[in-house]
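The aim of this short unit is practical: by the end, you should be able to scan a pair of folded records and say something sensible about each. We start with the first protein, listed as its amino acid sequence and then its structure tokens.
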Amino acid sequence: MLRFLLGRIGRAALTIAMVVTFAFVVLRLSGDPAQIIMGADAPPEAVDAFRTAWGLDQPVWVQYFHYFGAILSGDLGRSMRDGRDALVLVTERIPATLALTLPALLIKIGLGIPAGIYAALHRNSLADRIVMVVAVAGFTVPSFVLGLLLVLVFAVQLGWLPSGGQEGWRHAILPVITLGLGGAAVLARFTRSAMLEVLGQPYIRTASAKGVPWRAVVTRHALPNAAIPTVTIIGFMVGSLIAGAVVVESVFSWPGVGRLLVVAVANRDLAVVQCILLLVATTMVCANLVVDLLYGLLDPRLRSAPRRAGA
């Protein structure tokens, strides 16, 4: 188990390092931050002075090693716009993002998993078809389209809810619904597929043939085995709590991390963008690590595999 954990941690650290390197290189190739921040009318001397002050006049490999060394020491850089610490700017926005994504995650789990289970247990019925039609629609419609439709109906036409901003709990209803419905559709589809696959296994038929009540067959045998792929999707959703709200926050003018990322990319504010990407990568990797550990609890074969390998 220790070897398994160390291997996962090592792979997680390598993944984060690769993400940091990729983001660093792509951002340097996407445009000159000095020219964008200083403006097109800035004199060349001012632009050169800006590059020198922020180390942009040095070779890329020198900038990379300085940046990577700063990360290891806990320094994630400062914003080129106002000189504030990039980590402080990002952490200030995290509560606003979580105020949307956490309720949306509850909607995804509370709506998607029961719908998928019900559809699988009533396969080919009218309810199954309705659930799948709604799930496919929720999965294929982009979040910004769904958000704009909700604004058009509930904010413009009916006037029940505000169209954007963050001035109270009513402002969060539409973006939370926008985030939650798409994820619920994904979970419903995956849960249904996993349940149907498990229900077709021989041990399910054997348990039914032995006279085990169908409710017990479902709860004791089908659900635990179908939970493994479902946990993978939930882990991905948990890992994308911060990154998953980029589009929705922009549509609803919600002052979260996602909207900060859009603004920072447009302004070539390198330190802020890199800080957000590092935060997202770390969250995703940690969520996947937790999912790997949960596999051992859900599937006894995974718990016994390391002991057999070391025997």
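Turning to the second protein, read its sequence before its tokens, just as you did above.
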Amino acid sequence: MNVDNGQMPPPTGLPVQATLLQRKLQALLDSTTPYPAPRWGFTAFMLVLYCIRVFFAQGWYIVTYALGIYLLNLFLAFLTPKFDPATEDSLDNAGPEEDGPGLPTKGNDEFRPFIRRLPEFKFWMSATRSIFLALFCSLFRFFDVPVFWPILLMYFLILFTMTMRRQIRHMIKFKYVPWNFGKKKYSGGKSDSK
């Protein structure tokens, strides 16, 4: 231990290395935040890679089904507002920690922005992690449970159709659109009247 100059040596060991690795990973994730198209392109590439792996290996249908259900769950959370207008009456009776901005339900209601239950970056991060986990599981025969895959596919399609129909009805009933393209854009600032 070198204490000649009054300084302690830098800490070493596994916890320190894990912290450094975590900081580097967080810095990498922070640098990708402003680029959603390349991030989603990478995730789509990984999903295609996984599908090719499952197609040629002819297995891991349970893993694929679980991945599909999880991605559907993430997608629904992405489309759903953080504060559901259907439960607005229950929020009026709730405490201030549960109260939040809601969507306008009448023509004379004030504008309230659409806040997602699951933000886009967290959606991307969770989807990418789940695809990596599915790829990892496809490396082991233990996870290749023999099933009749057409039944799983049919059940997933029925589940997808029913949940999306319910979500679309909810969007129509409360008149909200969970994406930005196609919406009116207003310019702020001074008007150019002369």
